[in-house]
Amino acid sequence: MKLKIAVLPGDGIGPEITKQAVKVLKAVAERFDHDFQFEEAVVGAAAIDATGDPLPADTLELCAGADAVLFGAIGHPKYDNDPDAKVRPEQGLLNLRKGLGLFANIRPVKAYPKLIDHSPLRPERITGADMVIYRELTGGIYFGKKSTSEDGRSATDVCTYSVDEIERLSHLAFKAAQKRRKKVTLVDKANVLETSRLWRKTVANLSAEYPDVALDFLFVDNAAMQMILDPTQFDVILTENMFGDILSDEASVIGGSIGLLASASVGEKSAMFEPIHGSYPQATGKGIANPVASILSAAMLLDHFGLTREAAVVRDAVEESLHLDVCTQDLNKNNYYSTEKVGDFLEGYIIEAGNMRLNNENLSLGQMTII
Ligand code: IPM
Ligand code: MG
């Protein structure tokens, strides 16, 4: 398959982790005889520095013309504590989502058996947790009208949703549930918010088209608690933009590291793949960032184009790396590998078709050429 992939490394650790994902995709292309072409562009703080604009027109154009976008991370501390900043790196990401019409953000979360002990949550609570969050990505309070009064003493963010916006995401969530454990949980705040009541009504109506899928509802405050108390109860979580943002960071605790969580953002024409973590500025350039979230995002890219065998090999490679403790510092404090080395291991595994005889002994003896 021929694919044109726009690569937007972005800020902080974005470039280092994206480099590993590109390496992995090149390994997949080599092993399975695909033609993947990569083209890079700037976004976020890096783009503000270069052009004054967090999403330069050239970047948007490249992404719109590509089959897929691989996105790194966005954000820089110099903007975080400056509420008066006129341009912010995050606008680059938000404008990209809006500009490409990426209305569905899909965030799978699971507890890897090998990493159960890394989670601060008790093993018996998280064992078997396996869910996917369908977050609405181009509407709600993120994109409503914003204003600050002239005297600067009040500010407003408007939250609006339409039936169409709710329906197009909900169809994807129900279809995903049909292929999983057939349960959708709508998370809202329908006891308080008008938009949430519209979500509830719309999703309840639409669920009649999916009689094989069970639908239940949770208020977001309760959902936040249930996520920690009993995450195994969730299969597909369907929710609006801001609730999805918050719940997915919370859910990442189940996996043991936010450095593992991947996501896909899809629309009618475009698709973008990005880790859910941020730019982790303190780690920039140190070679300690976990590239796995970016690499698993690349696996979601492969799945998106029906390359399921290829995606499975990438996931196998990741599982094998976890199994053998070929991990960055966040997962293995005492004997860790650099961002680059983890990428090299995965690349080698993919190219050699998983035929390598690996064990901790020959790894530590340095017998592996790829380590
Ligand atoms: C995410 C991030 C973004 C969001 C930020 C960087 C704008 O937190 O993708 O979850 O809030 O959507
Ligand atoms: Mg977030």
Automatic annotation (TrEMBL):
It catalyses: (2R,3S)-3-isopropylmalate + NAD(+) = 4-methyl-2-oxopentanoate + CO2 + NADH. It holds the Pfam family Iso_dh. Keywords: Amino-acid biosynthesis, Branched-chain amino acid biosynthesis, Cytoplasm, Leucine biosynthesis, Magnesium, Manganese, Metal-binding, NAD, Oxidoreductase. This is 3-isopropylmalate dehydrogenase. It comes from Antarcticibacterium arcticum. It is found in: Cytoplasm. Catalyzes the oxidation of 3-carboxy-2-hydroxy-4-methylpentanoate (3-isopropylmalate) to 3-carboxy-4-methyl-2-oxopentanoate. The product decarboxylates to 4-methyl-2 oxopentanoate. Homodimer. Belongs to the isocitrate and isopropylmalate dehydrogenases family. LeuB type 1 subfamily. Residues 4-346 form the Isopropylmalate dehydrogenase-like domain. GO terms for cellular component: cytosol. Pathway: Amino-acid biosynthesis; L-leucine biosynthesis; L-leucine from 3-methyl-2-oxobutanoate: step 3/4. Binds 1 Mg(2+) or Mn(2+) ion per subunit. The record marks Y142, K189 as: Important for catalysis. Mg(2+) binds at D221, D245, D249. Substrate binds at R97, R107, R135, D221. Its EC number is 1.1.1.85. InterPro entries: IsoCit/isopropylmalate_DH_CS, IsoPropMal-DH-like_dom, Isopropylmalate_DH. Its cofactor is Mg(2+); Mn(2+). One of its GO terms (molecular function) is magnesium ion binding. Its main location: cytoplasm.
